[in-house]
Amino acid sequence: MLLERLSTAFGPPGQEDEVREILRQEITPHVDKIWTDALGNLLAEKRGSVQGAPRVLLAAHMDEVALMVTHIDKNGYLRFRTMGGIDQRVLVSKLVLVGPQKVPGVIGSKAIHLLTPEEREKAFHLRDLYIDIGAGTREEAEALVSIGDGVVFNSSFCHLGDGRVRGKALDDRVGCSALVEILQRRYPVTLVAAFTVQEEVGLRGGRVVAFGEEIDLALVLEATTAFDVPDSKPHETVTCLGQGPALTIMDSTLIADPNLLTILRETALEQGIPYQLRRTGGGGTDGGAIHLTEGGVPTAVLAVPCRYLHSPASVIELNDYRHLVDLTDAFLAKFMERRTKLG
Amino acid sequence: MKNILQRLIQAFGPSGREEEIRSVLREELAGSGLELKTDVLGNLIATKAGRGGRLMIAAHMDEIGLLVTHIDDKGFLRFTPIGGQDPKNLLGSRVIFANGIMGTIGGEKIKDAKEFKLEKLYIDIGATAAAEAKELVAIGSMAVFVPHFTCQGNRIIGKSLDNRAGCALLLAVIRDLPPVDYQIDFVFSVQEEVGLRGARTAAYHLEPHLALAVDVTRTGDTPESGPMAVELGGGPAIKVKDTSLISHPRVRGLLEKAAKERDIPFQLEVLLRGGTDAGSIHLSRAGVPSGVISIPTRYVHSPAEMIDYRDLTRAATLLSAFMQQDQLFMAP
Description:
A: 343 residues, alpha+beta, Aminopeptidase, Elongation Factor Tu (Ef-tu), domain 3, 2 domains, 8-stranded mixed beta sheet, B: 332 residues, 6-stranded antiparallel beta barrel, 9 helices
């Protein structure tokens, strides 16, 4: 399963090479043109079947939240900082992979026997944590890793229950996987696919992908928070697993184009594809950067609801993923007719 | 200008849903002789063609609002803010949706003032069940403060004076456009309240050589207010800096010169927190020398903002005088 390969691939912000290589191999047979830009975004063009049809940018980010090695001490322990929104409290005792060679390690801290009663009440802070890769000296560690190496969670990908999967980096490897599926078909519209870098550290790759490409509209394929868990109140769920892809009305970076939203919702209704509206004004995606490119780009976001986002183990429902692909597919197939109807 | 301002205030226009305010502005601009255009994000651009340079003047037409995120079993609505909303201002306020449905904002019982956050508030539209509420509004519906407009002496109290006052000012200047040769693009911008977004794409598209934003600013003249050397009735403010912009010294200088030549009282404004469209315009492409004319306003982002009408008329005179300055554009 492509999603599994993508989920377990190594792709901290700025170090997306492994993810990019998988995607390049997957899409090369299906696109008319493929290139990597100066920041490392993987771009591809697939011409539409209709001459002069709109150019649609489809974006998904390749990077994942991660850590970066910032110091190697004389005993071979690694100190680190976070890249992107990682909850420090989840880090202790996690298995990790360091650097492109994927050197295994564990995030260490004081063991429970040694904690004072007050310390047991508090979460570990970044300064209390370190990565242990089994090295005994700085030299030993430096033979395996170096300062600046990205660090990702060492999480297996597995099927949970009936039709759900668990893995790291589902944000946004689900979007990458969906975009690969979309690129296998030809549509009336021309597709410009952008697998972006550095989304998790500030929508950076997304800021440049639409530039100079004469994009008429953009769809961002993402993963978004699902908070349908014990103790959340009904108005706090944001999205729920199993209710279909979530459409964004507004987040902290983008107010989705109302016409695109209408077309997406009408398409979903007509095709019988379930969808839900994302019920928060927070968060952000590459859409925030893309819609402000040049003179402006009408932009919408479709996202797979995802529990425990940015943690070592996120959970999605595969049907939501499938319906995101279906809705994107139907949107692209019918866009030109629907746009005409809209006037 | 009061009548126009009153009309603009009546129009619905939270960030991203500026259709109604845009169509009111379009009507007001119909006889102006300017070329009107709505761009991709919804900015309304009124252009006076000309030669020798391009001046962009922006006033945002959007207002802060609320977005419905949840409708509960009993028909109460939860919401997320659109732009900078203060829970203190919201509790007890009346809001209105695009379709005219009104609601009042209530709050959960809280034990500690520190818990008093937006998440504790809800909109009550008088519905008794979810189904009834869903016939009136939907998740994604947007609401704004209920419009009102009061003139009392020189003062005006109203909702969304931020920035319908700036829009009214631009309309007044357009009605009495000074005879200049260069091109002027008046931009009634969208989505300023959520991050100066509309002005950013408009500036890219228009490629101005010089830009001004017209917006409101805070004052420091109320009881125990934070320090700020701007007061109501002291004349328009010429911005020195805010969080988004350090005004271009040349533009600021030309504004001060214009004010002095015409004996227009003015104040220099240093705003500690906040920004305007000029913040995104001045960073467009290779950079645009930019400045701001501000209308001193009390209780910004509350349901009842207050300005002094004389500041508004003097700001219009100042803008007009600025437009007639010699050598507005820097020599190439």
